[in-house]
Amino acid sequence: MKKLLQSLFMMLLFAATAFGQERTITGTVTGKEDGLPLPGVSVKIKGTSGGTTTAADGKYSLKTSTKTGTIEFSSIGYILQSRAIGASNVMNVTLETDSKTLTDVVVVGYGTQKRGETTGSTASVSGASIAQKPIQSLEAGLAGRAAGVQITVPAGLLNTPPVFRIRGTNSISLSSQPLFVIDGVVATTGDQGLTASAANPLASINPNDIESIDIAKDAASTAIYGSRAANGVVFVTTKRGKTGAPVVNYDFWVGWSKAYRLPELLDAFQYTDYKNEAIANANAIRPGSVNVTFNGVSQLQKFVLTNGPDGQPINTRWYDYAYRTGVSQNHNVNVSGGTDNTKYYMGFGYTNQQGIYQKNDFKRLNGLFNVDSKLNKFITIGGKLSYSNEKNLAAISSGSLNGEAYGTSGIARTTLVNSPNVSPFNNDGSYNLGATFVGPMNNIVTGNQVGFYNFAQVLSLNRENNEIDHLQSNAYFQLTPFKWLNLKSMYGIDYINSDNDIFYNPVHGPGQGVLGEGIGAFRKRKNWTWTNTAQASYEISQHNFNLLLGQEQQRNTVTGYGIDRQGLTDPAYDVVQAGYTLNNSTGAAYGENYLLSYFGRLNYNYAGKYFLSGNLRQDEYSALGVKKGIFWGASAGWEITKENFWSSAGLDKVFSSFKIKGSYGKVGNISGIGDYATFSTYGSALYGGVASSIYSAAGNKELTWETSKKTDVGINFGLLKGRLEFEVDYYKNNIDGLILNVSQSPSTGVPSSVATNIGSMYNKGFEFNVNATPLKSASFSWNSNFNIAYNKNEVTALAPGLTEIVTPTGSTATGENVNRSIPGYSIGYLYVVRTGGVDPATGRRIFFNQAGRAVTYQHIVPTGASQWTYLDNGSTAPAITQGADAVMYHNTAPKFYGGFDNTFRYKGFDLNVMLTYQLGFWVSYGTNAGLHDQRYWNNAVDVLARWQKPGDDTNFPRAIYTDNVSYGNTIPLDINIFKGDFVKLRNVSFGYTIPQTAFGKSGINRVRVYVAGQNLAIITKYPGPDPEVSSNGSSSSGQGSDRNSGPNARTYTMGLSLGF
Amino acid sequence: MNKGNIYIAILCSTIVFTSSCKKELLDPALKTSVAAENAFDTQFRIESQANSLYGSLKNGSFYGGRYLAYGNIRGEDFINETGNLVTASDVWSLNLANSATSVKGLWSQGYLTINRCNVFIDGMTTKGNSVVGDAAGAKYVAEARLIRALSYYSLLQLFARPYADGNGSKPGLPLRLTGITGPGFSDLARSTVDQVYTQILADLNYAETNLPSTNANALLNTTRAHKNTAIALKTRVYLSMGKWAEVITEANKLVPAVAPFKAKANVANDLVTDIALVFKAPYTTAESIFSLPMTSSASPLDYPGTQNSLASYFYFTNATPGTTEYSLNPTGVIANTGWKSTDKRRALLFTSAASKQFVAKFIAPSPYTDYVPVIRWSEVLLNLAEARVRSTNTIDPQALLLLNAVRQRSDATTTLAPATVTDFTDALLLERRIEFLGEGLRGPDLTRLLLTLPLKGSAPAKTSSENGYIWPISSDELSLNKLMTDN
Predict the structure, then answer these.
(1) Which terminus of chain B, N or C, has fewer Cβ atoms within 10 Å?
(2) Of B443, B459, B483, B379, which Cα lies nearest the Cα of B159?
């Protein structure tokens, strides 16, 4: 290979000198907007091969023997300029940026297509728009950038996989996340960590190395991925080399992140008074009901201030011990260049990001190498090598990942619960530790409990770390035996090694009961894909044909093992390799699956006017009962501006383009089906140490993929010579055979829910996208994108006998069930009990039962009296329950969402302002129930508006100690459901590009400095920290539940880009 | 383009398209579990499954922990320390919701065990008996039916009105007797309490007939069923039904007329001299008719698990004794002056620095591997004693001997001599509170006699006619089983 390259360079050199006797044309190419030199611009004489490129300073020198002709200057991202060769040997050129740059070429499955020729619906985002952002993975930067694409960042924990929805939620039990295809290879997605830190594998791709992201939305553009296409397909293309001298870029930013909009809590004084009032109220109703036995004497519980080391009463703001200002820094270097025959790109990145939680860090070291080499006229080879090492660090659970909502360790929740009148430290500086939880200091309470863990101690010693080694690589061989035929074989791998290190100290926290615990678990995920394609294109008298045939295999295997050790043999040890008394295995995993596919695509167009396209794919998947399926998509388009009648009607003067397109097809979803879901199995168990095989899973031999039938109709048109470009789409996606984990009634004793293809749902809606250049002059320009999507989701059928799918927040056993999916409503609808304020006479919360009759509740009642009574006559009422009395209350899926992106440039200054919004949805702020729990839990300050005497008109019931019902901590209530609508100032950046003249001959060509902010402002009526926050991660049916989750981060960055 | 390139292209394509697919990968084999089709193929797998039925019974949500914990805390002898709903503070305060953790967890694990028994019995009929032979097959089925009976019995104690209320005519449980391995069987109405008891007794009678009279060793005599297990459980079941004559008939199969009260048939079950030995390794005394064994293996899980074990409910959740969910009610049975301080059973209590007392029968540290006693010989003796008194309504001499046998084993200096029948039955119930403190019998003892669940701490009392006297039905069952009715 090296020799080959050498000889190629030699040939080039020879070619350059051989014809060097004629005239030489020289000049400088600069950008029109900023007047800066442009490197890497291709300069060649029209109709000839060869030519040259501009150097780093924008200068070129072209030798030619022709006296006449045209020289073409072209560079990706700029409009091509043609200049006639004249008498002068100097030709300076300015190039204008092409606002349609991205629209030139669209990545489609197994190839690319010209934007103008596509008939499907694909949105494109440039890599530049997500580079330099304080994000961990590329999806986090996509919010608001493409119509119909909804990105939600569900937690402030670093590297939590964002929720990614294309045109609504398209599954109930399976994944609704799209398929990711990175440089042609299907990638692994979903959290790969086994600890309380998050590990999104897409974070392995340095956003700075991304050239473009193309998001395929309809059947026509996704059907080539058949059984995996139902949620849309995201094509990520990393940067590749361009012909020209080496170009070196260095980028750096430093950032500061902070939590925002934390709830305001009672301080120690308010807390102490309020809780004592609640105790007094309870005791007045039934003496002894809130007593505690203390030193052998039964007495009233009592909250008491304690003086701190300064002699003043302790008044702790627990937030201060959990959250911090995280400082992050990021460095990227890349080098790219190449000859006509061999091009390369090398990128290296180092990022060290601190999260808003203490000890939550993300560190990534990555390298990417792309090379393409044309060996001769017929053969091209190339490949990619990408390696990334990521450290996802944490010391304690944030409580924000899916399933963690009710964890005792969850730090976001603990900050809200722990009493403000105790300190994390004793006055002697040691940690204030009770028997199990934070010590009560002077408080006299049941169980000596005034909070959960003293997380300050836990943070100091525990670990929840994960380290990922991620290798993504591919190599291809391409043969072009005829000009019209292209044969390609590509083999790609995606290997993820996930190494997990958990340590719980023996003194306090989760490790206390087991006398210290160390867990080491390793999981290895290997994925290979081998793709073979043949592509033929043929043109005959304006009839253009393009045919693709291919075969692909994909194999995934996962193996995992680990050890869970308890009982440290010396309390000072803190690694899993140390001595322990108890050793158990953990994290055992074994899985495999295989997908074998054949596919084809035929594109046809006549004179760039009429377009037809068809896709067909057959997949066979190992995890299914019915393994083989056929998927297809067909589409058509009509470019009306090319019709004669259009110009004769004068419409061509109004519209620069006008295209109508439509598509229909059938695709599938298999993402999330267990590898062995078809089997009924007996698992391993023990009975007092004796081996046993226990009936543990019910399978379904008939299991097959979910089917989506997608319709898309759209028009694209441009006005004012392309300064305004509109795209409007209507879509409908009918999903049949939804796989539901059909729960059987518990009395059947079936050990697992059975995955069954049953149920249906649809999403339909409109998308509207406009790109505009409202202002453009030599020194000032304004580019703008606005997009909005309207989506309507409705579940139309569940299984016979299955009336509802309830999605728990937290675990099934201990969590709350606020999301309910039933036919006739959108997925994950909120299902709560209605309330009617507080009875002014008694201070009791009023609930409405199913019949609409008002029922009041008082937690503590005199002996023999009922807690539940009818408001109208005071008689005993049956207890209100969610099962009997809840109503379908509000939708959780946004009806409208989108973004508004504006870039202003004035000379060297640039300003970008990006807004994102989601509208028409509701969130269950379950945290709010906890914030008003009348046990020792701390409360939000609004609780002070409580009912105190008859006649008080308030929404806050009479304080009664131990009451965990009136505010919705046991039954989800409407008082905790809030509109989630928001507009966020997602990104603002302000930069200045220093004129090149400032650097002289230093070799520096480009310097841009900037300041930027993320999540700077939010307009919402939602009272929680952030309506985007979600307790259930990317769960399809559990959206809009915010229970004990932490806030998101607001980040300021300052950065510098250098080009050499 | 030359011909060579064409040939290369054709050759490459042919190789790729013909040789690369690995069709066999489309049918992966199970490597970490056994497919249902093969579950009854060998003697080993059948034995292995029989063990799993016991394993299902001993799940922490069921008999391995929580069922006993609920029996304790519904009674008056415990005080809730933490107010934690996950650890059954709502069970203790008798205000359970249909969706409560305790309600849903016990209901589903009970039925999970029942269905596993049913699937096993069906599998033995269709295949297993032909593999192990009819005699061995009947023994396995007997074990399954015993576990099924015990599961139904346990669910009845909480989810149905006591037999005494209307002689079993009240709604009982959905009675499922065939294995369910797929969807479509969710709906089934409740049988009456009497119908469920009838089935329990049919299962236990079958078990008595087909179980071995003794197993190979002390461990297996404690952890696997034998004839005495079935007989002993029948004394409990009949006692719950108030069928005193049948209690006597069953108990008399084992209990001699006079002391020493050592089983006269089958396994030589007997009172051990020191009751403390029952709760210590190896946990396999002659007194332990049936206990559920534990080890420290977490994967597969072989102990009750977090927030399930008796030790964590009643002794310690961390390494410090006395920091836990439930302390002993200072005005409960520990305040009884007739229970002498020298009684060895007082040694099974722990007093914390804060002067609170705790049950110290289950004290194995995390992961809490104490064996869980299901039925002990002393219960059979007291069951017989009670049945004799209640059936004859006299101070029965044998009953007095049996009562004192249990008392004097731990307190040799006391001889109980109740003056009236009422005194006698009170003394019997008190003896059961003392003897089985922490072993989950108090709740069922109160309800089978329709006694009021007494007030304790801040928790109110519940009379037998009040809402909350028995548990509500699992909300999951109500929503998925159309024919189910709530209590």
Answers:
(1) N
(2) B443
Query: A residues 534-563 near B, CB within 8 Å?
Result: 534, 551, 553, 555
State the amino acid at position A182 in one-letter form: I
Q: Note the ipTM here.
A: 0.93
DSSP secondary structure code for residue A959 in this structure: P
The residues, ordered by sequence, that sit 6+ positions from A1018 with a Cβ below 8 Å of its Cβ are: A261, A982, A983, A984, A985, A1026
AA letter at A26: T
Q: Which of residues 568-607 of A touch B (CB under 8 A)?
A: 582, 584-586, 588, 590, 592-594, 596
- In chain A, the N- to C-terminal Cα span, in Å, equals 28
| Nearest neighbour of B81 by CB, restricted to A446, A749, A867 | A446
Q: From first to last of its 487 residues, what are the pLDDT tens digits of chain B?
A: 456 666 666 666 666 655 567 888 999 999 999 999 999 999 999 999 999 999 999 999 999 999 999 999 999 999 998 878 889 999 999 989 888 889 999 999 999 999 999 999 999 999 999 999 999 999 999 999 999 999 999 999 999 999 999 999 999 999 999 999 888 898 999 999 999 999 999 999 999 999 999 999 999 999 999 999 999 999 999 999 999 999 999 999 999 999 899 999 999 999 999 999 999 999 999 999 999 999 999 889 999 998 999 999 999 987 789 889 999 999 999 999 999 999 999 999 999 887 889 999 999 988 999 999 999 999 999 999 999 999 999 999 999 999 999 999 999 999 999 999 999 999 999 999 999 999 999 999 999 999 999 999 888 899 999 988 999 999 889 888 989 999 9
Q: Count the neighbouring beta carbons within 10 Å of the beta carbon of residue B31.
A: 9
Alpha carbons A737 and A532: distance in angstroms, whole number = 31
Neighbour count for residue A1003 (Cβ, 10 Å): 10
A594–B9 CB contact, under 8 Å: no
SS (HEC) of chain B = CCHHHHHHHHHHHHHHHHHCCCHHHHCCCCCCCEEHHHCCCCHHHHHHHHHHHHHHHCCCCCCCCHHHHHHHHCCCCEEECCCCCCCCHHHHCCCCCCCCHHHHHHHHHHHHHHHHHHHHHHHHHHHHHHHHCHHHHHHHHHHHHHHHHHHHHHHHHHHCCCCCCCCCCCECCCCCCCCCCCCCCCCCCCCEHHHHHHHHHHHHHHHHHHCCCCCCCHHHHHHCCCHHHHHHHHHHHHHHHCCHHHHHHHHHCCCCCCCCCCCCCCCCCCCCCCHHHHHCCCCCCCCEEEEECCCCCECCECCCCCCCCHHHHHCCCCCCCCCCCEEECCCCHHHCCCCCCCCHHHHHEEECCCCCEEECCCCCCCCCCCCEEEEEHHHHHHHHHHHHHHHHCCCCHHHHHHHHHHHHHHCCCCCCCCCCHHHHHHHHHHHHHHHCCCCCCHHHHHHHCCCCECCECCECCECCCCCCCCCCCCHHHHHHCCCCCCC
Task: Return the SS3 of A275.
Answer: helix
Give the tokens for residue A481: 């035996």
Q: First and final CA of chain B: distance in angstroms?
A: 85
Q: CA-CA distances (angstroms) from residue A661 to A220, A635, A643, A653, A786?
A: 11, 7, 15, 22, 21
* Minimal Cβ distance to B82: which of A449, A487, A593: A449
CA distance B163 to chain A (A): 21
Chain A positions in Cβ-Cβ contact with residue B98 (cut-off 8 Å): 881, 883
C-alpha B346/C-alpha A586 separation (Å) is 40
> Which residue in B has a C-alpha nearest to residue A436's C-alpha?
B318
Asked if A744 and B45 come within 8 Å (Cβ–Cβ), the reply is: no
Which of B26, B318, B480 is closest, CB to CB, to A436? B318
